[in-house]
Specification:
Keywords: Pyridoxal phosphate, Transferase. By secondary structure, this protein is α/β, with parallel strands linked by helices. It is 41% helix and 12% strand. It has 14 helices and 9 strands.
Length: 334
């Protein structure tokens, strides 16, 4: 699955630029890939750890598809972060991050990053019928192409000149400072984030008010083999939990929380919770949400740096409210 905000960006903002997207639901199905990839397809895009259901992707499998079709593989590693997985080592050509999240780590600076691995063969792609004129064509007589002038750094240079310079999504100096400060503690923070997430996910799985926990690091998860192979079982700190009682159960649970903040952000020092069906995925058709597993009882948790005991007590308070919904009414007569 792809993060809801990204799907909105693709389907609304990018659509205005004439850019279209096709989604592949079964990444193990070569025929579905072949149907989706067209002569004018420019790239394959995926995420390491999709949000909100922690359904980790098989990057090696997708990288093989991209290589076969001579397409660059773009990977969003916002939730995975370089502390847990380095997509270039699994076949990615370009990596993107929302630096607002884990890289900065405190939710106080908005930013993004594009990292060019310098590995994609743009000329071979063009010989295979793919067109990347921004990279390979001369912009004017007497001036070489980006590839001629910058070699392996051609894509990064093109992004800087044709996107950042022309459209303007540049980082302020102070936000850059906050990002730099945050990255210095990334590995330490991620260790705490994931240790706590593993403990909370395993605990939630045992609670009677919980229908399911979407965390690939759990042995019960259908993607656990990929989680162990690529992440040593440590699949981040953003995952889904489905409580009993549908949307009323989800509402009751959130209303009982005091430590978890009701926020749409992730990757903060603070733990956060949202209800995807009425927030990040509220504008999607029912059939899309059904395929994505966005159900009425699903909550997304982003586990922060608080103590495990404090988070468990808070979640227990929320789950007690879920239990109260199912408790039989008792009437007293005199």
């Amino acid at each position: 699955s792809i993060y809801g905000g990204t799907r909105i960006l693709f389907g609304r903002s990018f659509k205005r630029f004439g850019i279209a997207f096709d989604y592949v639901w079964d990444t193990d199905d070569d025929a579905e890939w072949d149907r989706a990839i067209r002569p004018n397809t420019k790239a394959i895009y995926t995420e390491t750890i999709p949000n909100p259901r922690n359904d980790v992707t098989d990057l090696r499998r997708i990288a093989a598809v991209a290589a076969r079709h001579r397409l660059p593989l773009v990977v969003d590693n916002t939730v995975g972060t370089p502390a847990l997985i380095r997509p270039f080592e699994h076949g990615a050509d370009i990596v993107v991050h929302s630096t607002t999240k884990f890289l900065t780590g405190h939710g106080a600076a908005v930013g993004g990053a594009v990292v060019d691995g310098g590995s994609f063969d743009w000329e071979a792609a063009e010989r295979a019928g793919r067109a990347y004129p921004l990279i390979t064509a001369s912009p004017r007589p007497g001036l070489g192409s980006m590839l001629d002038r910058f070699g392996r750094g051609a894509y990064a240079r093109a992004v800087r000149e044709a996107v950042v310079n022309d459209i303007g999504p540049s980082l302020s100096p102070f936000n850059g400072f906050l990002l730099h400060q945050g990255m210095e503690t990334l590995s330490l923070r991620m260790e705490r984030h994931v240790d706590t997430s593993l403990a909370i996910a395993a605990w939630l799985e045992q609670q009677p008010e919980v229908e399911s926990v979407d965390y690939a690091g759990l042995p019960s998860n259908e993607l656990h083999d990929i989680a162990v192979r690529d992440y040593a079982g440590r699949t981040g700190s953003v995952f889904g939990v489905t409580v009993r009682g549908g949307i009323e159960g989800a509402r009751a649970c959130v209303d009982g929380l005091r430590v978890f903040s009701r926020m749409t952000g992730i990757g903060d020092t603070r733990s956060m919770v949202i209800h995807p069906l009425t927030s990040t995925h509220a504008t999607f058709p029912d059939e899309i949400n059904d395929r994505l597993g966005i159900t009425p009882g699903l909550l997304r948790l982003s586990i922060g740096l608080e103590a495990v005991d404090d988070l468990q007590r808070d979640l227990r308070a929320g789950l007690d409210r879920v239990a109260a919904l199912a408790a039989p009414a008792v009437s007293l007569a005199r």
